[in-house]
Amino acid sequence: RETFVGHQVLEIIPRNEEQIQNLEQLEAQDHLEIDFWRSPTVPEQTVHVRIPFSSLQDVKIFLESQGIAYSVMIKDLQVLLDEENEEMLMNQRQ
Amino acid sequence: ERSSGFNFGAYHSLDEIFQEMDQLAAAYPTLVSKLQIGSSFENRPMNVLKFSTGGNKPAIWLDAGIHSREWVTQATALWTANKIASDYGKDPSITSLLDTMDIFLLPVTNPDGYVFSQTKNRMWRKTRSKIPGSLCFGVDPNRNWDAGFGGPGASNNPCSDSYHGPSANSEVEVQSIVEFIKSHGNIKAFITLHSYSQLLMYPYGYKCTKLDDFDELNILANSAAQALTSLYGTNYKVGPICSIIYQASGGSIDWSYDYGIKYSFAFELRDTGLHGFLLPANQIIPTAEETWLGLKTIMEHVRDHPY
């Protein structure tokens, strides 16, 4: 089973078309293995992106260098997955 | 009296979902039947629930879970199935609907992906087909329909989460639905359930032009969203795929609309609380309840506006 330890989900709010283009460039970089849960569309519309632990530093540096504001929406995805799994197991037992 | 004890407020395995579908068919034998419209790439059944009071009536198509990781959609579909069955004969609106039309409901459109998301990779969204010449698996089944196939908003990289596949309908899961809809010949509405972002969309996604039925679909979608919001205040955005998300080719409701099914809609269910695809199970029933109000608004309109 694939684990998501250390994966973070960032919430990003692009301010203008240029920042949206920057995010689209980021999306095209396959080696980062990032997963857009909510893709960039229009300025001021929130973007959600899951980033593997191994790519976190690169992505955050990129965002900061482009002046793109972001916050951490999910700090460690695996924690939520474990909770979900536990709940499913409990329901199955019931 | 039914006593399956099935918990609609929990996430379930594919086997449990299929068992409950059998239970529903057994509990309401004069209304509900199960039919298999095909098999997935890994040979799992594509099981549809048919709600019918008899005769060959025009029908409404509902599907859920084409993107496997969107678990609240499969759960919502099952709750909806139970709601339709248990409300027939009690709720005048549903009774009248089913006396006029049939409903086909596919709760798990991407069974291989669903099993994979429960056993190997919780974030899996695609099918599990093998791509010749690539180490990567799977196609985004909502980029694989014959509607602007391979155009903007779909990837030609087999490793991408939005890979459109080698050709339109290459995915047996998509092909099975297309064949079923064509062979039925009298589907009047095509509604697909996704989750994330709280949207109610209509065509087009593969192009950004205004469709012929824009005014009617826009008014109807807004009414449906209002009905949905009335329960718990969940806010929905309404509009064509292209303008409220982004241009995306090869999507199911674009195909269904171009095929002649005027009432083609896609729901993106709630993700309130910033949980993403990990919506806590205690939000399944509220999500299903509010979605039901939107679905009912659309289905009533379809019933009252034959074409």
Q: Could you please describe the fold and organization of this structure?
A:
The complex is a heterodimer of chains A (94) and B (307). Chain A is an alpha+beta fold. In chain A, 44% of the residues lie in helices and 20% in strands. Chain A is built from 3 helices and 4 strands, in the order βαββαβα. Chain A has helices at residues 17-27, 53-65, 77-93, and strands at residues 8-12, 35-38, 47-51, 70-74. A 4-stranded antiparallel β-sheet of chain A has the order 2-3-1-4. The radius of gyration of chain A is 15 Å and the shape is elongated. Chain B is α/β, with parallel strands linked by helices. Chain B has 9 helices and 8 strands. An 8-stranded mixed β-sheet of chain B has the order 1-2-4-3-5-8-6-7, sandwiched between helices. Chain B is globular. The termini of chain B are far apart. The model of chain B has no long low-confidence stretch (mean pLDDT 95). At the A-B interface, strand 2 and helix 3 of A face loops of B.
